[in-house]
TrEMBL record:
Pfam families linked: ExbD
Topology with respect to the bilayer: Single-pass membrane protein; Single-pass type II membrane protein
Gene3D superfamilies given in the database record: 3.30.420.270
Protein name: Biopolymer transporter ExbD
Locations listed in the record: Cell membrane
Keywords for the protein's UniProt record, in alphabetical order: Cell membrane, Membrane, Protein transport, Transmembrane, Transmembrane helix, Transport
Species this protein is from: Haloferula rosea
An example Gene Ontology CC term for this record: plasma membrane
Length: 136
């Protein structure tokens, strides 16, 4: 006969093999340890300087463009629009090619307008590493 009788099963002990589950846990543990990214902190508190005193130095040594919350572009207190960026800053960049361009974006201005001003500044000849976007 194939199979066992009821009397034979009662005498045998049932064993649960946990070694495959433990192997799986160790593999997952190794995976998470290897793929973890640790954030490095400096460990010191840095006092940032007040930019109010340096604003006059920035005005004379860089090109300041402002984007308002209405997505209007200003240079020197004059509304120039996105299309006027090249015409205003290209002559300044031909005199001093490494002059930094700072785009001051309002908190409520759209990101697309700020990026368009950035692109126009690059077309005007500003060096890519000399263009900064300043927010509060």
């Amino acid at each position: 006969m194939f199979g066992r009788g009821i009397s034979e099963e009662a005498d045998e002990e049932v064993h649960v093999d946990l070694s495959p589950m433990i192997d799986c846990i160790f593999i997952l543990l190794i995976f998470f340890i290897v793929s973890t990214v640790f954030v490095e902190e400096t460990g010191v508190e840095v006092n940032k300087p007040d930019v109010g005193a340096a604003a006059s130095a920035l005005d004379s040594n860089s090109i300041l463009l402002a984007v308002t919350k209405d997505d209007k572009v200003f240079y020197g207190g004059e509304s120039i629009g996105i299309q006027g960026v090249i015409g205003k800053i290209k002559p300044l960049l031909t005199e001093t090619p490494d002059m930094p361009v700072i785009i001051q974006g309002d908190q409520e201005s759209s990101h697309g307008t700020v990026q368009k001003v950035h692109g126009q500044a690059m077309l005007a000849g500003a060096q890519k590493d000399k263009i900064s976007i300043s927010t509060k």
